[in-house]
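Field reference: sequence -> structure
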Amino acid sequence: MFVVTAMNRDVKTFDNMVSALRYHMYQHVLIANTGEFGGSTAQAPYQKEHDRLIAHVHGNNQIAISLFEVDLNHFGPELTALLPDNGNGKVEPDKALKQKYGKTKPAGLKRKPVKS
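Structure field:
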């Protein structure tokens, strides 16, 4: 996940930036803006619009807390977003047939597992 902490007044530009970054970087993107200006959002490059927008908070002079669960493996080393879903939200990695869940992965994308 690409996280940007911000103190920006130009909320519209940052919203557009997140929309572009989640697509071009092929990963989850989160902008956490200060409550003084508002405009925090989290997005991912899923195929369906209602899946893409994970969290979105606007308004100024506020305190907003968004809690959400994100599977970073969807666009991480395992690219589980491209595996077929068995209908109950569980992916089946043993199936050979893959479905297009998000945008097509970038040419030459070769992510390696992170060693901890």
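Note: The chain has two helices and four strands.
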